[in-house]
Structure formats: structure tokens, C-alpha cells
Amino acid sequence: MKIRIAGAATTEFGELWKTSPRELAREAITGALKDAGKKYDEIDALFVGNMLAGMLGNQANLGALFAEELGISVPAFRVEAACASGGLALHNAINSILAGQYKTVLVLGIEKMTDSSSDEVTAGLMAAGSDEERQAGLTFPGIYALMAQAYMDKYKVSEEVLASVSVKNHFHGSLNEKAQFRRLITVEDVMKSGRIADPLKLLDCSPISDGASAVIIEDENQKSSKPVFITASETASDTLSLHDRESFTTLSAVVRASRKAYEKTGIKPEDIDVAEIHDCFSIAEVIATEDLGFSKKGEGARDIQKGKRTIGKGKIITNPSGGLKACGHPVGATGIKQIVEITQQLRGQAGKRQVKDVKIGLTHNVGGSGSAAVIHILQN
Amino acid sequence: MVGIVGYGIYIPRYRIKVSEIAQMWQKDPNEILTGLKVLEKAVPASDEDAVTIGIEAGKRAFAMAGIIPSKIGCVYFGSESHPYAVNPSSTIAAEYLSIGNNYLAADLEFACKAATAGLQVSMSLIKSGQIDYGLVIGSDTAQGKPHDALEYTAASAGCAYILGDKKSEVIVNIIITSSFTSDTPDFWRRDGMRYPSHFGRFTGEPAYYNHVLSEARDLLSKSKFKPEDFDYCVFHMPNGKFPRVVAKKLGFSKEQLEPSLIVDRIGNPYSASSLSGFAAVLDIAKPKQKIFLVSYGSGAGSDGFIFETTENILKKKKGITVSKQIENKKYISYSTYLKHTHIL
Amino acid sequence: MITTPVKLWRRQKNIASLIGIEGKILNWTIIRVPARSFANQAPYPVVIIELKNKEKMVGQLVDWEKEDLRKGKKVIAVLRKSLPMDPESIIAYTLKFKPHEDH
Fold first, then answer.
1. CB C43 within 8 A of CB C32
2. Which of A121, A141, A347 is nearest to A228 (CA)?
3. Residue B143: which pLDDT band, with cuts at 50, 70 and 90?
4. Domains of chain B
5. A364 noted as active-site residue
6. What domains lie within chain A, and their CATH numbers?
7. What is the pLDDT of residue C102?
8. Å from A207 to nearest chain C CA?
9. Beta bridge partner(s), residue A317
10. pLDDT at A85
11. Chain B residue whose CA is closest to C89
12. Which end of chain A is more exposed for a tag (fewer CB within 10 A), N or C?
């Protein structure tokens, strides 16, 4: 499979009080069109990834809404898979091109979270979990905290080692003008930050953010000056509840989806140069690097602590954008932002964040506590 | 003969000391302790109510009785802290106890004697052959108005009694029951008001004492028994003083009364008061022992019962005994008490 | 998350069958920043427990002490209210777990 990325752009991520969802979309879409050297009427279809607009903003019908922002009444779709909405929207867009239905497709990932109070957002995000989890009073930090405890007990990893994930991602974020947080933090900062759900602390958790990202994809036969291709797009699902799974220290959906991606492309984990990982919580990145095969089971956290995933120091660099922790996590936008980041890396356009000699990139987007996983492999 | 085939009691684990409450209002703790003869009272958790407590007690009663819940033919739930003003506690309890749909049901209210009234109704339904088994629950999360005298004693607990008439199942027979009732406004709560009101010393002689003593004397004369014929006696316990005075006046000894005096350690759980004292006695009773019980509900009335244990009392498996639950406790401060009782 | 009367009613039989079920704690966390519908209750523990038949459940732990939060601690399922309550709406009863004393 070879899908060409014609254009890619993202807004800044953060608490964008003054910017409405429509304005966010317009900025991302305009940026992607400009990057692609295309006009509005060259788009055949629009896919939108978003999770919370209905619950928090009382707005459904997002396909039509953002097609209106695009300025033309093209076929428009909204795809939702909690925090994997962006990645899954791209997966569906790719399928529509492979099916021969459309030639040039715009994929928009967008989320506006700061219009609601944080306890409303916490409740809204729990829509990604199960009824039983909600009844139990769990929050997403709580669900991942349960995973963190299981992981830390099993592999004898301390909270200090886990803290190195956020430290690395803040370092990367400091190099990214679009990131929500650009300040450096230390392990001590993480350890001192307030507890959210034991053992996870404030600085172990990704923030509440606004933002939008967009990519324009085409089948490989369209002309383009900056060739970056998506060579794999795989997804898998798993149980809604964490406790219904066999293991709390691995996301089987990630293992299955990435395995399919590796098999179809013939690429091995060690061939990956750079990856954007879904670090909604520090433990999520640790488990992901193991599930994706970058680190051996139980060594993910220590590898990150040793600098193996850091720009300028390591080999398979993870979250050069700053990840969800430092770049920000407007839920529906993240999956597309990850694609934008890897595209820029593969084009050599990542500025201070540029990883050297990048040939193969991977994005890892997860919904809920692992109930949905979407993996993309990109190459130049 | 109709009797009890199983019982269960649940006392919430939190306690607040009477001295802690006294200190809040800068009263001399010793004065309160001597006057009321109550050391501490049981406080429910923030997420407990009369229904959840009643269900816990009900589960324990079924574990002892060993009968299938769907055999229950009537459910009466007595409380003065029903969670809803309109929506029956009896059906919520019945549903979560898996009783099915074929049962008579109603919620009862008669201050602290709602559940003993329920015993009388259930007993009559079984006696008349209308049903085989009945469930009676008395449960309360009594609210004491801050700074009021009743704050020291208004407590929380739940009791469940399952009645039947199969000789092989009954652990204690109901020999006789009667009531002494009048319209005496000693203690009341208006609709919509959070706390009850009372008329101080009027709740003593003309109310509690008059009804308990009158019923007790009527029952003794009707049954031709004398106080010495009983192994145990149980009276409604609004505080530690009243039941001791009444027992003495009637001619019962300290030893006969002592095992039932749970009020000293858990306070007054209203509809579960006399029935918890009764459960404490049943926990230690032997076969062929007679028990004298008179409850009291403000407004006012007293239900009197003469019980006699059977051979089966030692055969049925006892759940967590009253004395064990009294010991299983965690003390809380006055501010935590306010959180638990939803004032904060 | 407001439980509607219909949802509460539909869940009854399932919850009724689970009251009194025993299990052991596998993992636990303490929620300190709750979702809106659990405001005022934090901090409270949430536990994943394993039943005797190896099935797993998740629920709030009540009547707890710090020492109860350990792998292997025995718990029992009880019915409690779901807080906080809106004064006009239906009372939602839900399954929670509490430390189990052996008797």
C-alpha cells in the first residue's frame, strides 16, 4: 500500500481560549492546503476525527459542519474512537482511496476541551471507558494508574524511573513552537507534583488542550513534490474495560495492529527511526515502546531513562513533538498531529526537533485504555 | 405456632463518642454520660442509608434462615428515615434481596416501633394461612439536630427478621403479642423537615414510661407470667437510662436486662433499637428460654411480645454477632461525622 | 453521570445477584481528582478484584483503611448509594466493595 501525503499542518496546541472550533479547523485546513499547493475545490471528501463535541459542546453532525468550514459540500464523515478518533479517521480515509471512491481526501482531527470545566471534561473522557468503570468512580488517570501499579510491581520499576518519560517529552516539547508546554522539567518536579490517581501525579498526565491538525492524502499516482507515503494503516480493538483483559501491562490491540503493520511492510521494529507514541500518561508510553517492539518487556521505562528514545542521544526516537504530555492532547486531533509530525520529520522539515537520517516513521494512536489502537507506518 | 426462622443485624462501623459531641458544644462530657448512660453511637458511612443497611441485615437473615428468598410472602420495612417520602423502601429491599414479585408489601412508620408493628402484621398473615414466610426489616439512619439533646443518641443500624411456622425451622416462637396505643405527641417530624422535634421531659413519664409500663403490665397479666419466669427482657432504648428504670419498675433483674443493652455502645437506632437488643439476646440464648420484649414508638405506642426459644436456636448458623459488630468500630471526629450525615 | 430510573431498574437483577460476592484485590488506585459525578468524595480507592471463579470486577472500595490497600486483601460486594445525590432525582444504588472480615 502507498498513500501519498500531499499536505500536512497543525495549529498550536494549548488553552486556546480565544479560538473557536471553527477557527481551529480553518487554520489547520488552510495550512494543509497551502502545504499541498491545492485549492478547496480539489478535495473530494472530508473525514473528521473528534470525540467530545457532542458531549461537551452539544454539537453532532460534524462532517457537515466542517465541510461548511471547508467551503464546499463534499462527502463528509465523522469518525470516533475516543482518543484514537484522529488515527481512525485517517484509516477510514485511506480505505476510501484504496476503494477507488475518492482521489484526494482531507482528514481533520480537532478537539476543543477548554470551553468546559475540568470535572466535566474528566467525566466526558470516561465515555471512552465502560459503564462499570464509570460506576466505580474511575477516571482515565485512575485506569492508567491501575496499569502503572501492575507494571511497577511486575517489573520492579519505581515512580522516579517512570518520571523520565515526562522529562524527555518536555525536553522535546521545548524544541516545538506548536507545543502547549515548552519548559524543561526534572524528575524531582514530577515527583513533587500533586497526586491525581496514585501512583500517577500531575506531571505524569497529559493536559487538557485545544487544537486541530489536518492532512491531505492522495493515491500514489497523484503528483507531489515532497514524497512521504503511508505504507501501513492497521487497527485493532479490545475490551472496553481494563479489568476484562488478560494483562494489565500490555495493550493487545497495539500488539496486534503493529504486528499486522510490520508484516505487511516487511519492516521490523528496529528499522523504525522515529515514532509518535500515545503517551496520555507516562506509563502508556512505557508500555507502548514494549508493545511496539522497541524495548524488551519490562525494560521500556529504563530504556527511556537511559536516553535511548531522546533526540540527539538515542536510536528509535519517540515523541519528537513532545508527545501528548508536552505538545498537548486535544483528543481528536492527536492522531493527525502525530502524522503531521512524522511527515515533517521524513521531509527534513522538523527544525530543532529534526531526527537525523529519518527514513521510516511510525504513529501509535490509542482509544480508551487500549480498546482501540491505530498504527501507521510512514516512509519517504 | 408462628415464630422467627432467621434474623440478621447490621451495625455501621463508624462511631462518634458522646464526649466528642459534648466537647463541640462545650458541655461537660461526664454530665452527659451519667445522664444518658450512652458512651458512643453508630454513624453510617456517607453512602449508606436505611435501605442499604436494611439489605445488609436482610442478607444475613436469609443466610441464617436458609430459605429461598422467593418464598417470602410479605415484606414490611419500618423506618423513620426512609430514603424517599414517596417510593417504598420495602420494594427496593425486596428487589435487591431477590424476593421476586409474589409478595405483599408496605412501608411502615411509627417512630421507633415501626418494625415491631411489622412483626405483628407478618405474624398475623402467617397465622391466618395467607402466606408461608414474612420478612420484617427495621432500619434507620437517624438524624440528630446539632446542639439538641437527641444528637447524643440518634444512631444507625438495621435488623431483619424472617418469620415462618414450620416447626423444624422456627428458632423462637411468638407466644403472645399485644399493644398499648394512644395519641401522645411527645416526638414528631413534620413533612419536609430534616430533624424531628420533641417536647423535652414530656417524652419521659407520659410518653415512654406510660406506654411501656402499661403494655408490659397488660401483657404479664394477660399471659399470666411473672417477671421471674423470663430469662431475658428487652425494652426500647432511647438512652441507657430509660430501659434500666423500666426494667426495675417492672421487677426484672439487672442480669435479665443486661445482654440487650446495646444502647450503651451504639446509641438509639430507632426502628432497629429493641429489635437489635433482641438479636443480642438471641445470639446467646439457649433452647426453651423465655424472652419479654416491649418496644416503644413516639406518637405513641408500645408493642409487647413474649417469645420462647426452641431446640433449633442452637442449630442455625449465627452470622456476625451483635457483640462482634459492636466491637468492629472506627472512631470519627465531629467534623467527619458532619460529612457522613450530609451536613457538610 | 446521572442514572435514569430506567437504567437503574434494568440493572437491578444483575446487581442483586452480585451483593455478597467475595473476591481479592488485584490492583488498586486512589482517585484524588474525580469526575463531576463523584465530586466531594475524593480521595477514594478504586479496586480491581478477582472473584473465586477468576472473573474480574472493578469498583469503589468503601469503609477502608490504608492497610486494606494491598494485593490479595479479601473484599465483599455491598450495595451503597451513588453519591452525590441530586435532591430531586432517583437514588442510584450501586455495587461497591468493602474489606471483608473473616467470621
1. yes
2. A347
3. confident
4. 3-170+319-328 (3.40.47.10), 172-314 (3.40.47.10)
5. no
6. 3-117+210-219 (3.40.47.10), 137-207+230-379 (3.40.47.10)
7. 62
8. 14
9. A274
10. 98
11. B84
12. N
Query: Are the C-beta atoms of residues C99 and C73 closer than 8 Å to each other?
Result: yes
Alpha carbons B21 and A340: distance in angstroms, whole number:
64
Q: DSSP readout, B132-175?
A: SEEEEEEEEEPPPPTTSGGGGTB-EEEEEEEEE--TTT-SEEEE
Q: What are phi and psi of B171, to 5 degrees?
A: -100, -25
- Alpha-carbon gap, residue A370 to B326, rounded angstroms: 46
Checking if the pLDDT of A192 tops 60, the result is yes
Query: What pLDDT, in 10s, does the model give residues A110-169?
Result: 999 999 999 899 999 999 999 999 999 999 999 999 999 999 999 999 999 999 999 999
- Read off the amino acid at residue B228: E
Judge whether B144 and B150 are in contact, CB under 8 Å. yes
- Which pTM value belongs to this model? 0.91
**The domain at C5-99 falls in which architecture?**
Beta Barrel (2.40)
B–C CB contacts, 8 A cutoff, strictly below:
51
Q: Give the separation between CA B204 and CA A307, rounded to whole angstroms.
A: 79
Contact A134 C1 (CB under 8 A): yes
Is B233 an annotated catalytic residue?
no
Q: Where are the domains of chain C?
A: 5-99
Q: Which of B36, B42, B35, B32 is nearest to B11 (CA)?
A: B42
ipTM of the complex: 0.94
Q: What is the DSSP letter of A81?
A: B
H runs (alpha helix) in B82-209: 89-96, 114-127
Contacts of B96 in chain C (CB under 8 A): 12, 15-16, 19, 79, 93
Band of pLDDT at residue C103, cut at 50, 70 and 90: very low
